[in-house]
Amino acid sequence: MDQAQGHAEDAESAYDVVVIGAGPVGENVADRARAAGLSAAIVESELVGGECSYWACMPSKALLRPVIARADARRVPGLRQAVQGPLDAAAVLAHRDYYTNNWKDDGQVGWLDSIGVRVYRGQGRIDGPKRVTVGGPDGERQVLTARHAVAVCTGSRAVLPDLPGLADVRPWTSREATSAQSVPGRLAVVGGGVVAAEMATAWQALGSRVTVLVRGEGLLPKMEPFAGELVAEALREAGAEVRTGVSVTSAVREGGAVTLTLDDGEHLEADEVLFATGRAPRTDDLGLDTIGIEPGSWLTVDDSCRVEGSDWLYAVGDVNHRALLTHQGKYQARIAGAAIAARAAGTPLLETDRWGAHAATADHAAVPQVVFTDPEVASVGPTAAEAERAGRRVRVVDYDLSGVAGAGLYADGYRGQARMLVDPDRPVVVGATFVGPGAGELLQAATIAVAGEVPVERLWHAVPAYPTISEVWLRFLETYRDGDGG
Ligand SMILES: Cc1cc2nc3c(=O)[nH]c(=O)nc-3n(C[C@H](O)[C@H](O)[C@H](O)COP(=O)(O)OP(=O)(O)OC[C@H]3O[C@@H](n4cnc5c(N)ncnc54)[C@H](O)[C@@H]3O)c2cc1C
Ligand SMILES: NC(=O)c1ccc[n+]([C@@H]2O[C@H](COP(=O)([O-])OP(=O)(O)OC[C@H]3O[C@@H](n4cnc5c(N)ncnc54)[C@H](O)[C@@H]3O)[C@@H](O)[C@H]2O)c1
Prior knowledge:
Bound molecules: flavin-adenine dinucleotide, nicotinamide-adenine-dinucleotide
Domain FAD/NAD(P)-binding: 15-327
InterPro entries: Class-I_Pyr_Nuc-Dis_Oxidored, FAD/NAD-bd_sf, FAD/NAD-binding_dom, FAD/NAD-linked_Rdtase_dimer_sf, Pyr_nuc-diS_OxRdtase, Pyr_nucl-diS_OxRdtase_dimer
Number of domains: 3
EC number: 1.-.-.-
Family: Belongs to the class-I pyridine nucleotide-disulfide oxidoreductase family.
Oligomer: single chain
Number of strands: 21
Largest sheet: 7 strands, mixed
Domain Pyridine nucleotide-disulphide oxidoreductase dimerisation: 367-473
């Protein structure tokens, strides 16, 4: 539609859409805007590709893939003996480096170039309505104006607890845990969420002696309780220590080692300590004060990802705190891109109803997540406890995943558990959780059932192939029917 005016060194350039933050989400907003015929610029202060490509999804999954593959192979009779040795840690780290492109972003910059999205390097800051300044590395400043929309896609960063002297300890956050170049002898992991569970799994298998310090009752507290229980059990069997109900009260580094003091009075020594204690929005140095929004806050948006109270500002991905997951942020990006384009074209009415083209409805109803631990955890929709807290009536259908023929063939002594939640009033599936080897690949069927609001009666006709682990769907339906009295 519009041409970019001028070059990078110009004082001011105008675009239809200006995106701040070139993580997976920002890239997708720019791509969708461009696909709709709008001009788009994107501002990035670090690496194009964002946290996901360099310090989160890609490196963590590259570290975990050999761990899970070895664990799976060790459960297959006839193959077990061939995979008894330790992992080749140097090769695993090199494989991880390959997946991060050695922390270089030329490939992703090339893709943005190829689709006509202009990349600006530097810190993007909002400077009043529809204006963004870019502070370059040498102190130069450029001004970008947006004709239609500014999309904030600046993601999140790890938060550290407020412990005295913690900076001197040089703690790991998710960044170091995914990019370390050597295996620490002893690794303490503080936290019980997804990052803690995945990174404890990876580093224990790579040769560290891992101790996980969980403040609450167990691992993965946002998922069904059996998920955290099975993952903790497997971590312990792998040699890690998992301690619950314990908090760190202080940390010091002396002579190379870190000593943590715990609230039960005990001390724990480690070579490195990872704090996997949650995320904060990257909105503190974003110029939000120039438009009356509190710096450092998560940005609250409507279902088209437009910031409440604004007609030009969008916030997409982690920064809006709806679902801190790459695939869900990219989904939001597709919705936001379509909404920006429709509004730019003057479309009188957007499709913002439930499941409409301009409403990120799945954020409320069908967020899928796979935790790449051993066993894997895969979930979509609310947990039973969340449904109860929300006052929703659900029927809980549990099934021991080891009871299906495909599970036994997949792994000797298969251990796993599955749960389906049904809204009995409609009746449709509203959520599911699978824990067990290979569980991640079971999830998309559940996501389709939830997002599609497929009636349980119709699911009887979606016949799972024999002998796959997906036969758990048949067992779910039988258990549900039997619970109804047949
Ligand atoms: C260890 C770990 C593993 C994870 N694994 C998974 C996984 O397996 N699957 C999954 O779905 N999710 C995973 N996640 C979550 C996932 O990483 C995030 O949900 C995803 O990165 C969010 O994408 P985003 O584009 O919103 O933000 P980010 O990826 O954080 O990108 C934001 C970008 O904005 C840039 N930026 C910030 N402020 C400015 C500014 N003012 N000016 C210019 N640029 C700026 C940043 O440099 C960054 O490049 C993981 C997270 C962690 C920590
Ligand atoms: N495979 C995946 O999909 C994947 C992998 C990693 C991360 N992620 C996403 O990234 C986000 C961040 O993950 P995360 O694990 O860092 O955050 P999280 O919020 O999931 O977990 C943080 C945990 O740390 C605990 N905690 C907070 N402060 C603490 C303290 N001072 N001491 C002890 N414990 C403390 C919290 O109780 C919580 O259980 C999540 O939303 C997650 O979904 C996804």
